[in-house]
Design a protein that fits this description.
- The protein contains nine helices and no strands.
- It is mainly α and about 180 residues long.
- Helix 4 packs across helix 5.
- One heme C (HEC) binds next to helix 6 and helix 7.
Length: about 180
């Protein structure tokens, strides 16, 4: 017990010594804030690796739907264009191959999703010059996509107000007369 206390005391002393040296560190450049981490997903797919390190364009995977309102989340067979031959020993890639083989949809946990009574179109916003980052943050840094912006009614309204876009209720809600 006494020995444990002695060790503890020396640890405390060491910490005190370190903090006494702290001012020297104040001049070091600030480290970048860690990327936010979103929900656990059925396959550990990393945007930081694919969109960040490998610099794959967002649009390579997120192709617009026919109307352009939705940006498609790719199916497993699209990922297999590369993973039929790449990293095939990785257990997460093997899970992916299993989904592709059975033809079933990967049950991704959605991060940005509006209730069905809200109208939203990617096309309208992208045509206006907004970027993915404006509404989703720096996804290319994230291991697991996190919700970093406010997609509540208040969040939509504050940008609409700032950009002089429409604020009428029927812009975003289909109202029955
Ligand atoms: C253009 C080629 C390409 C496409 C398309 C692609 N990947 Fe990858 N993926 C890679 C490469 C390259 C690596 C890194 C291999 C390495 O470093 O060992 C990788 C790594 C991975 C890993 C392993 C990560 C780890 O922990 O090492 C998973 C899981 C993965 N990809 C899933 C996917 C999914 C899901 C899709 C489709 C949405 C996809 N990939 C599409 C090229 C691709
Ligand atoms: C290799 C294919 C691939 C690339 C490249 C890619 N994504 Fe994704 N993205 C996915 C997959 C698969 C998911 C579903 C799993 C997840 O949430 O990580 C996803 C999910 C998302 C989501 C969450 C959608 C939701 O509501 O659940 C956003 C937002 C997103 N991506 C934005 C981006 C942006 C922005 C870029 C470019 C910086 C990008 N993605 C590049 C494959 C890709
Ligand atoms: C004006 C804000 C805004 C911009 C700009 C934007 N998004 Fe989104 N995104 C959203 C909202 C809101 C949702 C949820 C839509 C829903 O549930 O109907 C969403 C959903 C998604 C989804 C899930 C599938 C879908 O369409 O519902 C993906 C993938 C995605 N965004 C990727 C991107 C990428 C990639 C870009 C850039 C090319 C981008 N987004 C630009 C706001 C935006
Ligand atoms: C970062 C800014 C920004 C955010 C956030 C944003 N919007 Fe917009 N939105 C705009 C701009 C700018 C326009 C005008 C585009 C135009 O005139 O073509 C617009 C247009 C629209 C339109 C089309 C209006 C029309 O006249 O057809 C709808 C619908 C819409 N937004 C819904 C939403 C919803 C729902 C959200 C929240 C989930 C949202 N927006 C968040 C900037 C934003
Ligand atoms: C720019 C887009 C936009 C406009 C304009 C807009 N809303 Fe909404 N509204 C939303 C979004 C997004 C949600 C969903 C919020 C959420 O998921 O928490 C919502 C939710 C709602 C709800 C449900 C609230 C709840 O607690 O679930 C009501 C009611 C509503 N809006 C009424 C209105 C009325 C009335 C107007 C006109 C004064 C209006 N909205 C204008 C985007 C908009």
């Amino acid at each position: 017990m006494r020995r444990a206390l002695a060790i503890l005391a020396s640890v405390v002393a060491a910490i005190a010594l370190c903090s006494a040296r702290m001012p020297a560190q104040a001049t070091a450049p600030p480290a970048a804030a860690p990327a936010p981490v979103g929900p656990e997903q059925p396959i550990q797919f990393s945007h930081a690796m694919h969109a960040g390190t490998m610099k794959m364009p967002c649009e390579y995977c997120h192709v617009p739907s026919r109307t352009g309102d939705t940006l498609i989340i790719p199916r497993a067979d699209m990922c297999m264009q590369c993973h039929r031959t790449m990293d095939t020993g990785n257990p997460e890639v093997q899970k992916l191959a299993q989904y592709a083989k059975s033809g079933s949809i990967i049950p991704w946990v959605r991060v940005y999703e509006l209730p069905s009574f809200v109208t939203f179109s990617h096309k309208r916003h992208l045509e206006h010059g907004l970027t993915c980052q404006d509404c989703h943050g720096d996804v290319a840094r994230e291991e697991r996509v996190a919700r970093v912006t406010d997609i509540s009614m208040g969040g939509c309204m504050s940008c609409h107000r700032a950009k002089h876009a429409s604020l009428g209720c029927n812009t975003c809600h289909f109202l029955q007369q």
